[in-house]
Specification:
single chain, five-stranded mixed sheet, 28 helices
Length: about 600
């Protein structure tokens, strides 16, 4: 049965993927046709791609139209741009550059979607049979926490992070330890190179393998090959993408020399120990402790500022005005609770399912379930602290929920009473889409939830959306080539749709530009004018209902934007006609 399930799963996954891909392409057509993506990260990634294809160095990811003329430094990896660039290069002679970008921006996220669904389906197939495998594919495709990162034009690194996470998770179930270790090591190295925010979950994978080796007596082959491959791949990616090598500066938001030294130290201990210490538990534990201690000590010695987090050295004004308002990086209690509960639905349901499945798990699969349980609890706790990681915890929960659905389906097939069969069907649908049930049911039982659900339809929210739309922002292309100060979230769209430069966007490496941007809006007009002249700003742009702009009005009553919002224009600015829908523009005299 398992063999036939393995043979049928690819066809089933392909069939479901084609249907979902068609639906997502249709529903995302506005983002596809305008090539504006879903947020500033997607927009700036497309700008970076254009610069790369236009001749900017592989090793230079600086965005030179941010904080011109110096440019805004970026910590993004060029790896993400490789598949996009290949499709654009191949499609441009046939369709032109605009359509080529649309094809690349649609195809790459959807291919990632299919890969993630297939890998999770294979895990569920092993745990619960063909029905569980099919359920996992469907659940992956309809899960909001996953689909929001893998829909067309979601071209930033988030989708590839999920591909790496799914591959690493899948290898835990491969019987050939050497092959599994090589693939997991490669997946984790690419994940960290793409984004260092994957470090906590990467550490959990290494911790699980180390615990199985040290305490459960599992062969060290899987651990040794994983760590060895991770070490080699990390070195290759580091030296293949960064100039300066080990003399480059240390950063806390990307793989830097300090991290490389730490990885080498840990690998130098674990790789030989995993093959040479197969029998003594205490020696194995000592080797794990020594590797972890060496890596941590080197990292803290080389980059002590990273002990307080990736943003510990951020300018305090930038932190206060921007970073603490980025909800996706904040804990769950900073989110709208209906959204939080709906996205946490799959991890919560997965944990509950695990409790019910526990007593009936077959002996030869207890290790598999235990590993999933550890990773799910860890990832769910991480999602409570950093909400953007919710997609990874959802990914880990999908196979568990799918096994639960398969178990209910088995009972459904043998149940004779119609009422019970209906109850079982309802439970299966609920487990398949717990988040959707929560989001629909919450407003019915809570006035606060109903109010939250209507927030995005309030006049100010709708006005801000129109103001920030690609249709509005693209009208700025009618200005003579300009150096603009505009709200953070509009900056990348200006770069995408016009030839202009902007002071800053919501990307933290450009800290100097972000500080100048904030000061221009928040300081009194006379002080703002000094910065404007120094940075050769030509235009000030604003959107009255935009959240960042409203913050300046509330906090800085004498600031430039608060005065402009009241109609008090200083003599060094000249008001221009509104552009788009409510986009306010002033020219610097």
């Amino acid at each position: 049965m398992q063999k036939s399930g393995r043979e049928a799963l690819p066809k089933l996954a392909l069939f479901i993927w084609l249907g979902i891909a068609a639906i997502l392409t249709y529903s995302s057509w506005s983002s596809i046709s305008t090539r504006s993506g879903w947020d500033p990260d997607d927009q700036l990634r497309l700008v970076q791609l254009r610069d790369f294809l236009g001749g900017q160095s592989w090793f230079d990811t600086t965005q030179y139209r941010l904080y011109a003329p110096e440019g805004g430094p970026m910590h993004w990896s060029r790896l993400i741009e490789i598949p996009l660039a290949l499709i654009v290069i191949l499609a441009t002679p046939l369709f032109g550059p605009a359509v080529a970008e649309m094809i690349a921006g649609t195809l790459i996220p959807l291919l990632c979607y299919g890969l993630v669904a297939y890998m999770l389906g294979r895990i569920a197939l092993r745990l619960g049979g063909p029905v569980a495998g099919a359920a996992a594919v469907v659940m992956t495709m309809v899960s909001p926490a996953i689909s929001m990162q893998l829909r067309p034009m979601r071209i930033d690194h988030h989708g590839w992070q999920l591909v790496c996470a799914a591959l690493a998770l899948w290898t835990l179930f491969w019987p050939v330890a050497r092959k599994a270790g090589i693939c997991m090591g490669l997946a984790l190295a690419v994940w960290l190179h793409i984004s260092l925010e994957g470090a906590p979950v990467t550490a959990a994978f290494f911790g699980l393998l180390g615990w199985r080796w040290a305490i459960w007596g599992e062969s060290g082959t899987r651990l040794g090959y994983t760590v060895g491959t991770f070490l080699i791949a990390s070195l290759a990616l580091f030296f293949g993408t960064q100039l300066g090598g080990l003399s480059a500066p240390n950063y806390c938001d990307t793989i830097s020399p300090a991290h490389i030294f730490a990885i080498v130290a840990a690998g130098a201990i674990i790789v030989p120990a995993s093959f040479a210490l197969p029998s003594n538990k205490w020696l194995r534990l000592a080797a794990l402790g020594a590797a972890g201690t060496a890596a941590l000590a080197i990292l803290l010695w080389q980059a002590p500022m990273c002990a307080k987090g990736a943003f510990s050295t951020m300018d305090p004004v930038v932190r206060d005005y921007w970073y603490v308002r980025v909800n996706e990086g904040m804990p769950v209690w900073h989110q709208k609770w209906t959204i939080a509960l709906s996205l946490l639905g799959v991890p919560i349901a997965g944990a509950v399912t695990l409790l019910f499945l526990g007593p009936s798990v077959e002996a030869d699969k207890k290790s598999d379930y235990a590993g999933l349980a550890v990773l799910l609890v860890y990832a769910a706790l991480l999602a409570l602290l950093v909400f953007r990681t919710i997609s990874v915890s959802t990914l880990i929960a999908v196979p568990l929920l799918s096994v639960g659905i398969a178990s209910l389906f088995g009972r459904y097939r043998t149940e004779e009473k119609a009422v019970r069969r209906l109850v079982l069907v309802a439970l299966m649908i609920l487990m398949l889409m717990p988040g959707a049930f929560i989001s629909q049911a919450a407003p019915l039982f809570s006035q606060n939830a109903a109010a939250e659900a209507s927030t995005d339809q309030q006049p100010t929210a709708l006005a801000a959306k129109h103001c920030e739309s690609v249709e509005s922002v693209s009208t700025l292309a009618g200005l003579k080539k300009a150096n603009i100060v505009a709200p953070f979230d509009i900056g990348p769209l200006i770069l995408l749709t016009t030839p202009h430069s902007v002071m800053a966007s919501s990307h933290h490496r450009n800290e100097k530009g972000m500080r100048a941007h904030i000061d221009i809006y928040r300081l009194p007009p006379a002080q703002s004018h000094i910065i404007v002249k120094r940075r050769k700003v030509t235009h000030i742009v604003g959107c009255t209902d935009e959240a960042e702009m409203q913050g300046y009005v509330k906090r800085d009553l004498e600031g430039l934007w608060a005065q402009l919002a009241k109609g008090n224009t200083p003599d060094w600015l000249e008001a221009m006609p509104d552009m788009g829908e409510g986009l306010k523009v002033w020219r610097v005299r």
